[in-house]
Amino acid sequence: MDFELNEDQQMIRQMVRDFAEEKVRPGVAKRDEEEQFISDLLPGLAELGLLGMVTPETYGGSGLDDVSYAVAIEELARVCPSTAVTVSVTNSVCQEPILRFGNEAQKRRFLPPLAKGEQLGGFCLTEPGAGTDASSLQTRAVKSGDRYILNGAKAWITNTHVGKVFVVMAVTTPGIGAKGISAFIVPSDTPGFSFMPHEKKMGLRASITSGVTFEDCAVPAENLLGGEGMGMKIALATLEVSRIGIAAQAVGIAQGAFEEAVKYSRERQTFGQPIANHQAIQFMISDAATQIEAARLLTHRAAAMRASGGGPGQSQASSMAKLFASEAAKSVCDTAVQIHGAYGFSREYAVERFYRDVRVTTIYEGTSEVQRMVIARAMLK
């Protein structure tokens, strides 16, 4: 069993780290403070192939393996979690379901602009009254001739206002729960498709999140993804993949906060010596390092499993990685703030931003409680 990255994966890690340090880091604090989207970074991300990592070269993508994808997301999150989530979403919850469930015409039409970074994409599942209970969706899609008419509202959608293509879940057959949900590929310029105002968020302030409304939004029947009634299957399969990306994001956030804490502990002096010499600080650092390594290994295991074809254990592995990595990252960021003392409460230090950014990782793509449910069901079958 090999726990090391292969040569190609190491090259990708270094390439993304160099980009993150040279291009992303200089503007991180300003983008966070001003809630400024990462528009200036998109050309560079596209040039490196990071906006089409999961898509094969046939459709304009990079065709990277899943471990390489996780490594790239981690390296972006280590510097700027907002950049990481923007990249993760357009890859994992927009391109991935189209690639996996779309027909050839849909792939040829929608994937190349997304994979080349000419467009960003998103995923519309959550609603104001249906988050964890995704089977309770209220957005309706009614067949009318060669179109489906969508009406309803979505909440907490990433890449709104900048995204051009969204995979949307809507009820086509009411009264039968999850079996009545279907998925659609909906361009954002479709009449009746509207973005709500930006959410004012605690963290990830340089990524865009808002609601979406559909008012008699007419979507061509050819944009139905998979088939009628396949929406929940598509959503769950997509989340198996996207949870790996969120786990990688959490690992990157933890790594970034950890590095800041180690640096500070060497510089800050009390009682005539660096606080890094104090056993209490050393214990904090050793525990944080162990948590990060365990989270990274779980994440890479889930990614490697998927690269090998996934299988019955994929959902469990993805949920374990997402659960542990997000909870560990939250703990590591808390430790990093504690090591900084009062300065950790100041926006002048990066750990304050990491502390805010990490909090949502235990919530989106399925809360920690949902991940425990998924894991338990797999273990108790």
Describe the structure.
This protein has helices at 7-24, 28-34, 42-47, 66-79, 81-101, 104-115, 231-267, 279-307, 314-340, 350-358, 368-380, and strands spanning 120-124, 140-144, 147-158, 163-171, 181-187, 193-198, 209-220, 224-225, 269-270, 273-274. The two termini are 28 Å apart. It folds into three domains: 7-120, Orthogonal Bundle (Butyryl-Coa Dehydrogenase, subunit A, domain 1); 121-229, Butyryl-CoA Dehydrogenase, subunit A, domain 2 (Beta Barrel), CATH 2.40.110; 232-380, Up-down Bundle (Butyryl-CoA Dehydrogenase, subunit A, domain 3). The protein is globular. α1 (7-24) packs parallel to α4 (66-79) and α5 (81-101) packs antiparallel against α6. Helix content is 51%, strand content 16%. The strands form three sheets. It has a four-stranded mixed β-sheet. The chain has a four-stranded antiparallel β-sheet with strand order 2-3-7-6, covered by helices on one side. With 381 residues, it is an alpha+beta fold. It is built from eleven helices and ten strands. The model has no long low-confidence stretch (mean pLDDT 96).
